[in-house]
Amino acid sequence: MEAALKRVVGSLALAGALLAGGMAMAQQPLKIALIYGKTGPLEAYARQTEAGFMLGLEYATQGKLEVGGRKIQVILKDDQLKPDVAKAALEQAYGDDKVDIAVGTTSSAAALAMLPVAEEYKKILLVEPAVADQITGDKWNRYIFRTARNSTQDALAGAVTLKDENIHIATLAQDYAFGRDGIASLKEALAAVGSKARIVHEEYAPQQTTDFTAPAQRIFDALKDKPGRKIIAVVWAGAHPLPKLMDLKPERFGIEVAPGGNILPVMAGWKQFAGLEGAIYYYWGFPKNPVNDWLVAEYKKRNAGAPPDFFVAGGMSAALAVVEAVKKAKSTDSEKLIAAMEGMSFDTPKGRMTFRKEDHQALQVMYHWKMKANPPDNVDLLDLVREIPAGEMKLPIRVKR
């Protein structure tokens, strides 16, 4: 009798220990690595991404910062915009920190170095804000998802604004993955939207270029005698060359500049160019939806009235995608996450995004803008010409599955 009682007590103790262990496992934090280029010329992009990501987690969890009973723990890693550092940071995040999901990074070159690591560890990497087409193109693997737009989405949106007859274009871009991808994508996009515009010259300059006299002269020479509209299309990250190009007076040759979109401090330097047009990923005053309403109000409240910028929206979109994916999968197992995320739609400050099943690229709207005639300050800068629906931008599938 005593032996039987001991066995019962022992069994109950074991069951209790297993139950406690299971509860402890259930309460393990949900670990997310946010890898970004906080050191270097794109620091502003990284800070915005971090701010938006944290706000997105707050919004998606109603301030609780937990999913399925698991507290969210964000581990920040600065890759300094260096591919080797980014690769090592992701290896450390998956291997040592045991993160469930990683998000990043700022530089396209650094992001490309991270892709094989996600495949090696069989863990999800959500790319934000790097845009090179190769990320969801020929360098892609099934563990990669991207909330950031890609170069082709930028190009397709820009091409929509360049559909007039008889346009000649010269391009200026940075001489690395982002810039070269951007120009290649622009060529394809012009054809895809049925534009009659022709690219007659391509100019690539080092990322740190500050004197644009020589590149501009080559561009002017290529365009000045062409008939019709003559446009310089610029693909550039960081300190933008537009003011320096305008100082060289392209208008004397009848040449316009199409700068694309950028962060507010950069576009504030364009205020004197009334009527300037382009396409942009996000501008705080354009989207009309509850998520953006909350973001604008909350960000202004916490930042002395300043509105959220370009990469704040991107960071928030990434966080909203992560939380929605974990909720839908009811797990952080990679295979269950992939199954949940392929084709998944989720709300963002730009409205609904959808991860395309074929390459995990988020399909999303873009915006055609025009610089206000007399901007009242450094943030109220743009008028919306038109929201460009995702379905209007026929995004090619570049991966082989």
UniProtKB/TrEMBL annotation:
Stretches assigned to the Leucine-binding protein domain? 29-372
Query: Which superkingdom heads the taxonomic lineage of this protein's source?
Result: Bacteria
| Entries under InterPro entries matching the protein | BCAA_transport, Leu-bd, Peripla_BP_I
Source organism per entry reads: Vineibacter terrae
Q: Which UniProt keywords apply?
A: Amino-acid transport, Signal, Transport
Q: What is this protein called?
A: ABC transporter permease
SUPFAM superfamilies, A to Z:
Periplasmic binding protein-like I (SSF53822)
Q: Where is the signal peptide?
A: 1-26
GO-annotated biological processes: amino acid transport
Family matches, as Pfam families? Peripla_BP_6 (PF13458)
Coiled coil (residue ranges): none
Q: Which family does it belong to?
A: Belongs to the leucine-binding protein family.
PANTHER family per the UniProt record, alphabetical? LEUCINE-SPECIFIC-BINDING PROTEIN, PERIPLASMIC BINDING PROTEIN OF ABC TRANSPORTER FOR NATURAL AMINO ACIDS
